[in-house]
Design goal:
Bound molecules: 1-O-pyrophosphono-5-O-phosphono-alpha-D-ribofuranose, uracil, magnesium ion
Keywords: Allosteric enzyme, Glycosyltransferase, GTP-binding, Magnesium, Nucleotide-binding, Transferase
CATH class: Alpha Beta
Protein name: Uracil phosphoribosyltransferase
Cofactor: Mg(2+)
Distance between the termini: 35 Å
Radius of gyration: 18 Å
InterPro entries: PRTase-like, PRTase_dom, Upp_B, UPRT, UPRTase/APRTase
Pathway: Pyrimidine metabolism; UMP biosynthesis via salvage pathway; UMP from uracil: step 1/1
Strand order of the largest sheet: 1-2-12-10-8-5-6-7
Shape: globular
């Protein structure tokens, strides 16, 4: 795992990188792409949740009683930035089945590269929860900045943004707008092209995941 000073964590675990390479390959099928995203999301979740607060509870093993570690505090909120966010969310939710779940519906206008909102529903008491917002792609950063604006308006103060690929431009935009939000990603790619796509990237995550286009 590489931690950079600007709150960007790149998960360079061999399994993550191997699976990501297969996802980048344009000949990878929709079914394989979806399955790999699910698998990677669980490995990324392992890193994202490393700092979760802990307490202990008394349990009786078949041998004796002990104070055993257990998660503390209110259940975390997992927020999917629709629609591609669902591909990351499914795997994380398998690992943390008690998480509360919310959705921010946004799509990127292909001309302006500005996000258009169409849905918003999040759990109550956002101010008391660790909020993990998930979207595979951090490209211009406009969608994630908008989503996090909405989450903060809903009360969230402790937010981590989890993505699969990030661009340098997206990281800089997020850092400027939300310096308090840690970004966790599998890769910091090279650049954006003139249409706002991540290079080398993996193409359109939503389309590859759902077989649209
Ligand atoms: O950083 P940005 O430049 O804003 O781009 C990233 C956004 O673009 C993609 O979503 P898209 O708009 O394609 O919607 P979809 O998830 O419904 O496919 C992606 O899932 C992000 O939400
Ligand atoms: O490269 C990109 C940029 C935005 N959205 C995607 O799905 N891919
Ligand atoms: Mg898309």
């Amino acid at each position: 795992m590489t931690d950079t000073p600007n709150h960007l964590t790149i998960v360079d675990h061999p399994l993550v990188q191997h699976k990501l390479t297969i996802m980048r390959d344009k000949t990878t099928s929709t079914a394989a792409f979806r399955q790999l995203l699910r698998e990677i999301s669980q490995l990324l979740a392992y890193e994202v949740t490393r700092g979760l607060p802990m307490t202990t509870k008394r349990v009786e093993t078949p041998m004796q009683e002990m104070d055993a570690p257990t998660l503390d505090g209110k259940k975390l909120a997992l927020i999917s930035i629709l629609r591609a966010g669902n591909g990351l969310m499914d795997g994380v939710l398998e690992l943390i089945p008690s998480a509360r779940v919310g959705f921010v519906g946004l799509y990127r206008d292909e001309e302006t590269l500005q996000p258009v909102q169409y849905y918003f529903k999040v759990p109550e008491a956002m101010e008391d929860r660790l909020v993990i917002a998930v979207d595979p792609m951090l490209a211009t950063g406009n969608s994630s900045v908008a989503a996090i604006n909405l989450l903060k308006e809903a009360g969230a103060t402790n937010i981590i943004f989890l993505c699969l690929l990030a661009s340098p431009e997206g990281v800089a935009t997020m850092k400027a707008a939300h310096p308090d939000v840690r970004i966790v990603t599998a890769s910091l790619d090279e650049a954006l092209n003139e249409k706002g796509y991540i290079i080398p990237g993996l193409g359109d995550a939503g389309d590859r995941m759902f077989g649209t286009k």
